[in-house]
Amino acid sequence: MQGFGLCLPTVQRSLFLLLGTTLTLAACSDDSTSADDSTSADDSTVTSSSTDTSASSSVSAGGAGGTGGAGGTVTSTSTASTSSISTSQGGSGATTTMTTGGGTGGEFVAPALLSETGLYEADMTTITEGVLPFAPEHALWSDTAVKQRWIKLPAGSQIDTSEMDYWVYPVGTKLFKEFSRDGVRVETRLLQKIEEGEWFLRAFQWNEEQTDAEARPDGVFDASGTEHDIPSENQCINCHDKMPDIALGFTALQLSHDGEGVTLQQLIDEDRLSDPPAGPFTIPGTDTERAALGYLHANCGNCHQPRSFVANMVDMYLWLPTGDLGDVASTPTVLTSVGQRAAQTYFPGGDGGGGETSFDTRIVAGDPDSSIVALRMTTRETGQAMPPVGSELIDDEGASAVRQWIAEMPAP
Ligand code: HEC
Ligand code: HEC
C-alpha cells in the first residue's frame, strides 16, 4: 500500500517538489499490487517541504495546462496534529486552504464524532432536515463499496456558477459521503467550507454498534474487518485539490440527470445558482460513447483536466467541459487522446522488465489492445495503474465500457 504520488519516477517526484508542495510519499514496495487509498503508520515515508514560489511559477509558465491552477503557490505546514495546505489557484485567483486538524484559530472546532456534524438526527439513522441526498450521474469506482452522498447548503445561499465548470460553493456548505461494504456502514466523509477558500476534510469510522463514527485523520487500512481502506487526510487532499473549490461530484455536468436527489434542474428552479444555465447538459453520442466519456470524466477527469497539475505532465484531458459538448469528435477527450502520441512509451509490466512489446498511442481507434488509455485501466502494476489512487480492484465494467467505445470507433 502506498500514498498518492506513489512510486513516481524521480523526474515527477522533483516536479512535485518544484511545485512547492509538501507531500508525504510512501515508499515504493515491490509486493504492492495496488495504488490504494490508505496509509499506515509503519510505511516508511519521505517528506519534503519547499515554499519556493519562483520555482513554482516557472513550472507553471512551461506547463501544458495554460489555464492556471497547477502553477499556483503551494505552501504547507505539518505538525503532529494539524496540517493544512493553501493553494492559490492561478486560474481563478482564489486561494484555498485545507484544514485537516483542529481548525485555524477561528471559532471552528473540528468535530471528533460524526454525531457532531449535523448529518444525522440523534438516532444516527434519520438524515437531518435540510441535508439533501445527491448522486453524480457517473460515480467514481471505489472497489465494491456502496456510496451515498448528501449536501447541506446554508439557507438562502447561492453557488457561484460564473464559471460553469468550476463552481464556488457558499461558506458553510457541508458535503457528506458514506461508504458501506457488505451491508455495513464503514465510514462517512465530510467536506466543510469553513470560510472563503478554506475547507475542512475528515473521515469518520463507524463503530461496531453503528451508533456513531469517530474521526480517523490518519486513515485506516482494511477498516472494520472489510477490505475497504479509509484514506488519510493527505490522500483526501491529493484527490480533492485537483479542483479549485474542492468538491468533485457536485457539479453542473454530474447533476445533469433526472434521477434521485438534488439535480441541476432543481438548483436552477430554486434559484441556487448565481449564473444559471438554460437547463441540464447532455454528454453527446450513442449510449456506448456517452457511457465511456462519462466514465472517463468521473474517474480520470479530475486529474486529467487543465487546472490539475497533472496537466503539466500529460496534455491529455479526459474531462468534459460543459461548453464542449456539441459532438463526440470535438470533446477534449477525443481531441487529446484518439490518435495522439503518449508522453511516455508504455511497456506493459514495467520498463525494467526487458519486455519487447510497447505502445505509444493513447487511443488507437478500433484497437483497445493497443490503446494505452485502456491498457492502464486494466493493470494494477505500481506506477502504471490508472487511476493511481482510490481503488485496489480493476473496475471490469468501467474498463469494458471504455474498451467497447474504442473497439467501435471507426479506424481513421
Ligand atoms: C481517489 C481520490 C479520492 C480520495 C482519496 C478522496 N476522494 Fe472524496 N471524492 C473523490 C471523487 C472523484 C468524488 C466525486 C465522485 C463520487 O462521489 O463518486 C468524491 C466525492 C467526495 C464527497 C462528496 C462531495 C463531492 O466532492 O462530490 C465527499 C464528502 C468526499 N469526497 C470527501 C472526501 C474525504 C473527507 C476524503 C479523505 C478522507 C476523500 N474524499 C478522499 C475522490 C477522492
Ligand atoms: C490521481 C490523479 C490521476 C487520476 C485519477 C488518473 N490519472 Fe492518469 N495520470 C496521472 C499522472 C500523474 C500521470 C503522469 C504519470 C504517468 O504517466 O504515470 C498520468 C498519466 C496517464 C496516461 C499516460 C498518458 C501519456 O501521454 O503518457 C494515461 C493513458 C492515463 N493517465 C490514463 C488515465 C485513465 C484512463 C484514468 C482513469 C481511469 C486516469 N488516468 C486517472 C494521474 C491520474
| Total helical segments | 8
Share of helical residues: 10-25%
The coarse silhouette is: globular
Task: Work out the number of β strands.
Answer: 13
Helices and strands, in order, run as HEEHEEEEEEEEEHHHHEEHH
* SS-based class: alpha+beta
Description of the molecule:
The protein has eight helices and 13 strands. It has 412 residues and is α+β, with helices and mostly antiparallel strands. The protein has two domains: 1-57 and 282-412, no CATH class; 81-273, no CATH class. Helix 5 packs across helix 8 (396-408). The longest helix has 13 residues, at 287-299. It is globular and about 60 Å long. 42% of the residues are buried. Residues 1-95 have low confidence and may be disordered. One heme C binds next to strand 12 and helix 7.
Describe the protein's topology.
Elements: H1 10-18, E1 23-26, E2 45-48, H2 53-62, E3 74-78, E4 83-88, E5 95-99, E6 132-134, E7 146-152, E8 174-181, E9 184-195, E10 198-206, E11 213-215, H3 233-240, H4 264-269, H5 287-299, H6 332-337, E12 341-346, E13 359-361, H7 372-377, H8 396-408
Parallel strand pairs: 5-10
Antiparallel strand pairs: 1-2, 3-4, 4-5, 6-7, 7-8, 8-9, 9-10, 10-11, 12-13
